[in-house]
Automatic annotation (TrEMBL):
<feature type="transmembrane region" description="Helical">
    <location>
        <begin position="67"/>
        <end position="84"/>
    </location>
</feature>
<feature type="transmembrane region" description="Helical">
    <location>
        <begin position="90"/>
        <end position="111"/>
    </location>
</feature>
<keyword id="KW-0812">Transmembrane</keyword>
<dbReference type="Pfam" id="PF25957">
    <property type="entry name" value="DUF7994"/>
</dbReference>
<feature type="transmembrane region" description="Helical">
    <location>
        <begin position="37"/>
        <end position="55"/>
    </location>
</feature>
<protein>
    <submittedName>
        <fullName>Uncharacterized protein</fullName>
    </submittedName>
</protein>
<dbReference type="InterPro" id="IPR058307">
    <property type="entry name" value="DUF7994"/>
</dbReference>
<keyword id="KW-1133">Transmembrane helix</keyword>
<keyword id="KW-0472">Membrane</keyword>
Length: 121
């Protein structure tokens, strides 16, 4: 089964839904400091994944692989920011390592998808 970009569009919609639920539950005061920055980066990742997953003029102009790759980089950065707010050294190390792996996927997609399996259009 060939991978398609549509799944990244669903991922983007899911990320944006999670961000909206977080804001609805915790409100604006919870967005101070690192958490606010993390959520902003998370939302940018969701938008980029959504734009890369479904057909639109931006995707046609920039390219789906670039949009998804940039979304992965932002999502990985958000995870690394989340590691800063967590407690416990093991949690922080694992969460940061996961984010860096996602950044590696994103950078590979930005460079053309040579090392990791790139989806078909």
């Amino acid at each position: 089964m060939a991978l398609t970009f549509r799944r990244f569009g669903y991922l983007g919609a899911f990320l944006l839904t999670l961000a909206a639920v977080f804001f609805a539950v915790f409100g604006a005061p919870a967005l101070s400091g690192t958490t606010g920055l993390q959520l902003a980066v998370f939302v940018v990742a969701g938008v980029l994944e959504l734009l890369g997953g479904f057909g639109n003029p931006i995707r046609e102009r920039v390219g789906a692989l670039r949009l998804v790759g940039t979304g992965h980089v932002f999502l990985g950065a958000s995870m690394c920011l989340g590691a800063l707010t967590g407690s416990g050294l093991v949690f922080q190390a694992l969460f940061c390592l996961s984010g860096l792996v996602l950044v590696a996927f994103g950078v590979d997609y930005l460079l053309g998808g040579n090392y990791f399996e790139a989806p078909e259009v």
